[in-house]
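Repro:
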Amino acid sequence: MDLLTQVVREAPVPLWVIDSQGLVSLANKAAIRFLGYKAEDDVVGGPSHDLLHCRRPDGTPYPKHECPIVGSGGTAPASEWFVTRAGDARPVQWTTRSIGPGLGTLLSFSPRPRTQKQIVRELRSRGPAPRTPAVQVRAELRESLCRTIASRFTDPEFTTAELAAAAHLSVRSVQALFAEAGTSPAAEIRRVRLEHARTLLAQGHAVQAACLASGFLDPGTFGRAFRQRFGCAPSQVPASLARN
């Protein structure tokens, strides 16, 4: 075996040579693996069209005379479906090139890149990814921290450090747990306080009372945080809810 033949057989790109009769005269290892065969002897000498795609992805026959590959001689990259030995249909992108009079056609192919829509559709069809034990444990720990916040947020002295101490964790560990959910412990404490204050205001409580009852000590800080979250001043809550 000469060096060039060996290089072709070991090339990472699937390569497939079709002779003038439409038979396979050479197939490298990458092409053989892609199509699910074990050895070169499984395909060499066989009809190229039947080995690549004797049927369409929907199971209907694919007549040889409709195949754009056999006899093409040379073409720009195009898309097709190849069918593996096991019967799996795989989308590919292929190109051909004539390798000289009487020598046949060189076919090279590779898996067709999936579009963003195809990837999203595939992920949705699989359903939610199962949680690994480690992910499950961290999610449950984060939920436990949220329950602690819900029971202690009215205490103005309750901070991220207090939350971490209650869970026997470091502040950094607690911050990392909330970061996995796209937030922070301080932001979650503030969110719960503001939600509670909004409920009190909607029930007719005075702004000062709602501020203090929700764990805020400074009315100015409370007002700015409330306006940033809800888009209105605390004093506007009852009228705003009435319009809604």
